[in-house]
Amino acid sequence: MSTATVPLRATSQADRALVERHRMGDPHAFEELYDEFSGMVYGVALRLSGGSEDAADLSQEVFLKIHRHLGSFRGKASLKTWVYQVALNCCRSRLRRRIRRYRGSHLPLDSVGEVPTKERNPEDTAVARSEGRWLLDALQRVPQPFREAVVLRDIEGLSYREIADILDVRIGTVRSRIARGRDRLRQILETSSE
Amino acid sequence: MTHLSIETISTYLDDELRADHREQAERHLEACPACRSRLERLHLVVARLSGIGPAAAPTYLKSEVQRYAALGPIETSVGARYEWLVTLTRQQSPLLAAFGVVLALVLIIFLLASGLTTFSPSETDLIVPPPSASAPELLKIGLRAFEPRDGGWIEKGWPGGAPSRRVAFGSEEFALRRTAEPELAKLTRLDGSVWIVLDGERIELYAEDNL
Asked: Residue A12's pLDDT band (boundaries 50, 70, 90)?
């Protein structure tokens, strides 16, 4: 279920026109951009942060940054790649702050980049075990670099090349992160279903 | 028998292996139940993730984003203060506008001469230096005013010394403060960091330009 019908690498004529209109002060340009990318940004934020409240906050932060900096977009990558990058950077910043806060409270973290989940009582756990919620919770326990790669590949449906452009790493690194992320997720799911 | 690495299995699943490596992997999978099992278990994980489906942003978010984005350019104190005069001279008779200005000046001079008032700026008045390339006029944001400093802006009335800590514009703390004082959102549009006193604390607000 790829969300990319156009290769991410190309900055299309439509993208350039939209950016130019925004530079010239056309408020509808930003509205169009929001309409095109809001689902994608919210989805990435939701899957990387694990909660709808955080995802909404992050989405707002992402679009305000986009509004502020769209005028300086140079078109070296596609607009979609750039939007993904802004979204990922905001999610990473949020995670760094959260980790600093948890470290300050001396709560243990199993490994770097995991998002500590709140303790649930057994009843809530049973309710939460709907497939989607269970999967998202498990995803939050995958270390952040691997989680990003898995979300971009298996949920966003992007190719290895597209993911490499977004993350600004080599394809070999993408391959490795996806594999380790999937395997870590598999271990978590298999362990929690025992 | 040497098993396939998890990376090979995962890449095989995505059909991203080179042709010769794919053939080798398929030969191994035919002969190795353990690797076939790992492939099937990994395939199950991928299938579950692919079934999650697209997400839709909450409908209220669009108006929130548009509201903050529509704050527009930072107003300058001078422009806002004297806009009424510009409008008057453009829309009304120039003669009438000139008469009004002269009348106002005469009144001020009379009051000063009679000692009934002294013209001293209050705390909220702005002292506007002559604009220059290196010293633009003060910026008024809400009830606060900011003046340029090296590397950014500093709130007028800064108590002195360096900030006691830094807060990022993208942080939750700043988001909370913005809720209480919406005008603070305009600070995100300034270049450089902003030194501001919040709840009696000297704070430096800065942008995490991680684009």
From this structure: confident
ipTM of the predicted assembly exceeds 0.90: no
CA distance B192 to A15: 29
Taking the C-alpha atoms of residue A102 and residue A118, their distance in angstroms, rounded to an integer, is 11
pLDDT tens digit sequence for B92-101: 567 777 888 8
Rounded to whole angstroms, the Cα distance separating B6 from A178 reads 10
**What is residue A116's three-state secondary structure?**
coil
Sheet with B139-141: strands ordered across: B139-141, B144-149, B152-155, B193-198, B201-206, B165-168
pLDDT tens track for B180-200: 788 888 888 888 899 999 888
Question: What is the per-residue DSSP string for chain B?
Answer: -PPPPHHHHHHHHTT-S-HHHHHHHHHHHHH-HHHHHHHHHHHHHHHHHHTT------THHHHHHHHHHTT-SPPBHHHHHHHHHHHHHHHS-HHHHHHHHHHHHHHHHHHHHHTS------TTS---PPP-SSSPPPEEETTEEEEEETTEEEETT--SS--SEEEETTSHHHHHHHHH-GGGGGGGGSSSEEEEEETTEEEEEE-----
What pLDDT was estimated at residue B54?
79
Q: Mean of the per-residue pLDDT values for chain B?
A: 78
Element (H, E) at A84: helix A79-104
CB contact under 8 A, B10 and A182: yes
The one-letter code for the residue type at A153 is R
Confidence check: pLDDT of A183 > 50: yes
B6 neighbourhood in chain A, CB within 8 Å: 179-180, 182-183
Chain B positions contacting chain A at CB under 8 Å are: 5-7, 9-11, 14, 16, 41-42, 44-46, 48-58, 61-62, 64-66, 68-70, 168, 170-172, 175, 188-189, 208, 210-211
Q: Are strands B139-141 and B144-149 parallel, antiparallel or unpaired?
A: antiparallel
CA angle A47, A48, A53 (to 5 degrees): 75
Q: What is the dihedral of CA A188, A192, B2, B4, to 10 degrees?
A: -50
